[in-house]
Amino acid sequence: MKEWWVHVGLICIPLVAVYLHIPPPHLSPALQKWHSAGEVFHFRGREIFYRDSSGALGSSDVIILLHGFPTSSFDWNKIWEPLTQRFHRVIALDFLGFGFSDKPRPHKYSIFEQASVVEALAAHLGLSHQRVNVMSHDYGDTVALELLYRSDQNRTGHLTFNSLCLSNGGLFPETHYPRLLQRLLKDSSFLAPVLTRLTNYMLFQKGIGDVFGPYTQPTDAEFWDMWTGLRHNDGNLVLDSILQYINQRLKHRERWVGALTSTFVPLHMIYGPLDPVNPHPQFIRLYQKLVQRSTITILDEHISHYPQLEDPTGFLNAYFNFIHSF
């Protein structure tokens, strides 16, 4: 009789093989509605998903929203309608490799390329010569800093800022604590292809849940929508490539932190203090020390890494107070 582990192996191998080819989940009605309201444009042969909603009459103000890792523009869904009541145009995109945008592999994803995607979208929408307000979160904060650097250096095709509002991004490598899986994926070329294929809903839910506050956890439907956005176009298979942004933050710290500390663009930080990735008080103390021209809103103590989803009312109040202050 064969050893028991041989029988287990014979059972597990086909099961794993089936799992590795599981199709992505179907879109929920909420995600389907978001997708249907959007469009695509082409950037260097790749399709980039975006939404562009017309809003307040009598206003010419435009806001561009830059989402975080590993999610998508759908992160802004809870504050979308209130923003359309204040701004003439509200625009959000899925970065290359995220959400409903193309997710090429192999591909060397970079913050520089994502900034160029945003500039290309602005040109596509006829905004190259208009001042725009930028709101960003997490990964989007670093893309915003590269855009800010280009703007202040007056680079060709740059975005012209009217204001910048950041939220819970790892701006400073010295106060940024990525999760274990993120560290493994960004640094382990051998394990990464295996880990990306073995990433499943339960692991994803645990990882995302850990960066929400205990009283502000997503619903099951919201977790599932985040997972669906990630799995769309096999997005789980490019996580290791995208996560090189953590190493890029360290390499280009002087460029991006320098842009933040030297700009005269109106700045605001909305911060959820329970964030384990950018912990309180280390992160906010360093921000206050280095970015003295910025105003800051620290939300309630139970708000964590996704403030726009955990406390949309508090987030919006903080943002509107900022935008009306200049």
Report on the structure:
With 326 residues, the protein is an alpha/beta fold. The chain has one domain (28-324): Rossmann fold (3-Layer(aba) Sandwich), CATH 3.40.50. Helices cover 43% and strands 14% of the residues. It is built from 15 helices and 8 strands. The model has no long low-confidence stretch (mean pLDDT 93).
Q: What characteristic shape results from the CA principal axes?
A: globular
Count of alpha and pi helical runs: 15
CATH topology: Rossmann fold
Question: What is the correct CATH architecture?
Answer: 3-Layer(aba) Sandwich
Order of helices and strands: HHEEEHEHEHEHHHHHHHEHEHH
Helix content: 40-55%
Radius of gyration: 20 Å
Main-sheet strand order equals 1-2-4-3-5-6-7-8
CATH class: Alpha Beta
Strand content: 5-15%
Topology (SSEs and partners):
Layout: H1 4-20, H2 29-36, E1 39-43, E2 46-54, E3 62-66, H3 80-84, E4 89-93, H4 111-124, E5 131-136, H5 139-152, E6 160-167, H6 180-187, H7 192-198, H8 201-209, H9 220-231, H10 239-242, H11 244-251, H12 253-262, E7 267-271, H13 282-290, E8 295-298, H14 307-310, H15 312-323
Parallel strand pairs: 3-4, 3-5, 5-6, 6-7, 7-8
Antiparallel strand pairs: 1-2, 2-4
Family: Belongs to the AB hydrolase superfamily.
Membrane topology: Multi-pass membrane protein
GO molecular function, one term: monoacylglycerol lipase activity
